[in-house]
Amino acid sequence: MNLIQKHSLKSLNTLAIDSMADYFVDAVTIDDVRNALSYAKQHDLAVKVLGGGSNVVMADRISGLVLKYTASQYKLLSETNEAVTIEVDAGFEWHAFVLFCLNKGWFGLENLSYIPGTVGAAPVQNIGAYGVEVKDVIQRVHGVYLETGETFTLDADDCDFSYRESIFKQALNNQTLITSVEFKLSKQANVQVGYAPLNSMASEQGMPTPLQLSQWVVEVRQSKLPEPSKLPNAGSFFKNPVVSLEKFETIQQANPDIPNYPQSNSVKLPAGWLIDQLGLKGKSFGSVSVHDKQALVLVNHGGTCVDVEAAANEIKRQVKGEYGIELEQEPRVFS
Ligand SMILES: Cc1cc2nc3c(=O)[nH]c(=O)nc-3n(C[C@H](O)[C@H](O)[C@H](O)COP(=O)(O)OP(=O)(O)OC[C@H]3O[C@@H](n4cnc5c(N)ncnc54)[C@H](O)[C@@H]3O)c2cc1C
Q1: 219-250 pLDDT, tens per residue?
Q2: How many angstroms does the Cα of residue 247 sit away from the middle of ligand 1?
Q3: Domain spanning 3-69 has what CATH number?
Q4: Taking a C-beta distance cutoff of 8 angstroms, is the pair 243, 269 a contact?
């Protein structure tokens, strides 16, 4: 086990916050994980699990032991003419995994192309993009409990997946390290081009192959979202709020052109649109700014967790004041 004391996490989070972990372990094997958990227990250290650092706001100092599991192999569990089931280690980089599957002719992940982070974090917030959520292809999640080191396996039905949510952010919050994820992927292409930019590309160029669709998604994402290596950010900073029909009607009366996505008994609204309407696109709050092309993204220009949270709170305050909507932050404070 490679244990480091006083380890900088600046290059390990996409907001590039200059954070320092008291203890850090890069665990390559399950034995490393177990050794790290025993060490933490012996020394009374809280364990905090880190993936690619693309959905966290790092505190200046992380007390306890930061554990990053980097195994990145896969196992083919079953194969028929129609589908494969594979088990993939948590440390596999997400987009590399998507491309790997496309090259093998295993489909279902194309819309989730180019999302930063790791396979192990994908179930945590049930990553989603362009009309697809990862829960649609997850079969099982394997991991260890941080407290006991015991292993567990959860069927997808028991993971409580919903919009950017799962049991790993709720009942099991900060209690597990996911070690691998099982996916069932199709050998038949079934491209999903329901979302606006993909739909218009399909109208102009014809239906894409899964590989083309992945390339379109990368293209669209690169045109809209800043690269964290150039402009440090954590992707969408707020979830899209879901409001009651009554509340929506009130908001719509004052804002007739508000985009909206009806659900069964509620309406989902684009948080980026709400922020944009307040004239906040491109606006700076000290060392943190709202991205000038995408109002849902906060860009960090050397600020700390406190600076990022102050900017987020100011945006939340203004949205609440104007629309009566409480925005919920997507990336979690890592402390
Ligand atoms: C430019 C950009 C675009 C993005 N676009 C999208 C998008 O389209 N859709 C979307 O859903 N998200 C998006 N995100 C958010 C982010 O990429 C995802 O949430 C991703 O899954 C986070 O992975 P990570 O490995 O970086 O996790 P981290 O940020 O390291 O961790 C996130 C949370 O998961 C926990 N965690 C991480 N690994 C494990 C593990 N192995 N076991 C248990 N818990 C773990 C951490 O403790 C933390 O609470 C975007 C982010 C950026 C920067």
Answers
A1: 999 999 999 999 999 999 999 999 999 999 99
A2: 31
A3: 3.30.43.10
A4: yes
Which three-class secondary structure state does DSSP give residue 165? strand
| Helix/strand/coil for 82 | coil
Query: DSSP string spanning 241-263?
Result: PEEEHHHHHHHHHH-TT---EE-
Question: Tokens at residue 110, please?
Answer: 């194309």
Contacting residues for 148 by C-beta, under 8 A, at least 6 apart: none
Q: Which residues pair with 56 in a beta bridge?
A: 332
258-269 pLDDT, tens digit per residue, is 999 999 899 999
Q: pTM for the whole thing?
A: 0.96
Architecture per CATH, domain 233-334, reads as: Alpha-Beta Complex (3.90)
Residue ID of nearest Cα to ligand 1 atom 14: 235
Reported as type and span, the H/E element at residue 94 is: helix 94-104
**Is residue 236 annotated as part of the catalytic site, yes or no?**
yes
Which residue in the list 19, 113, 236, 289 is annotated as catalytic?
236
Decide if 3-69 and 233-334 have a common fold: no
Residue 1 has pLDDT above 90, yes or no: no
> Domain 74-186 carries which CATH code?
3.30.465.10
Q: Which atom of ligand 1 is nearest to the CA of 56?
A: 29
Nearest CA to ligand 1 atom 36: 121
Kindly list the strands in the beta sheet with 61-69, ordered across the sheet, starting from the edge strand earlier in the chain.
3-8, 20-27, 61-69, 47-49
- Report yes or no: 43 and 1 within 8 Å, Cβ to Cβ: no
**Going by CA atoms, what residue is nearest to atom 3 of ligand 1?**
235
Query: Domain locations in the chain?
Result: 3-69, 74-186, 233-334
Expressed in angstroms and rounded, the spacing between residue 333 Cα and the centre of ligand 1 is: 12
Torsion of CA 148, 149, 153, 159, to 10 degrees: 60
